[in-house]
Each structure stands twice: as C-alpha cells, then as structure tokens.
Design a protein that fits this description.
single chain; mainly beta; 60s Ribosomal Protein L30, Chain: A; 10 strands
C-alpha cells in the first residue's frame, strides 16, 4: 500500500493506492486508524481479483453473502468511516463490472486487490457516530 495525506484547514484527505493482494476493507481500516480519521467519506475505483458482497436480509438480520470469484473492475465504491462506540467502522458499497459488461453490487464484505484500488478518504466533521438500531440490529449513522 502507498499512502499520502493531504491537509487543508477544513479537513484532511487520504489518498490510498492499494497494491496487488491487499485485502479490502482491512487495509482501509488500518489506514484510517493509523491517521486518526474518525469520520469520513470514501470513494474508490480500480480492480479486484475476487470479492465478497452482501445483501442485507431483513428477516435474518444478517447479510446474504454474494461471492464474486473472478477478476472485476471496481466501477464504484462508496462509503463512510464512522464511530460505533469506541470502534472505528467502515461501511462500503460497491458496484463491480464483469468481463461481459454485467454488474453485481452490494455491501463490500471483502475483496483482494488486483492490480490496484485507488481510494480517496475525505474527512468530514469532527466525528460521526453510529448507533445500533434495535429493529435491524445494524449500526446506523447518527450525525
């Protein structure tokens, strides 16, 4: 992973260039923790060797896992960094493009970078908090 921090008076921006084999979201969580980023927006494009997406099943209160066992283009990766109690959490969604032009999308549970993933993490406000929603069991943003 190669990383650059850009500061201005309003907010910091991390530019993260993930390397082949880096595991998303683990490497992003490590980067934001290392730089003390507690609240941010995340965007990215690039490629993955394989991925695992999730679709939240309301009845089960859990993610249905969607394995993606092929090389894909990351057409869009969007999400946030927020706090759930004392823990920094990532919430990422991805749209992945397949060789035939079809797409698959969902919550990004994991992925292995190939050849790169170019990520921009833009700090927002001093802190965003997440609180567990009793109905869903999910940690939801509470700005």
């Amino acid at each position: 992973m190669r990383l650059r921090e850009i500061e201005d008076q309003r907010r910091r921006t991390l530019v993260v260039a993930c390397d082949k084999g880096d595991r998303v979201p683990d490497v992003l969580l490590d980067a934001v923790r290392e730089h003390g980023i507690r609240a941010a927006q995340v965007t990215a494009v690039g490629g993955l060797r394989r991925a695992e997406l999730g679709y939240f099943d309301r009845g089960r209160h859990d993610y249905l896992r969607i394995p993606v066992d092929e090389q894909v283009e990351v057409l869009s990766l969007l999400g946030d960094v927020a706090q759930a109690g004392d823990e920094t959490q990532l919430h990422l969604h991805a749209v992945l493009g397949r060789r035939d032009g079809s797409t698959v999308g969902g919550h990004l549970l994991g992925g292995e970078v190939w050849p790169t993933l170019e990520v921009i993490v833009t700090e927002v406000g001093p802190e965003l908090a997440k609180r567990v929603d009793r109905e869903t069991g999910l940690a939801l943003l509470s700005p």
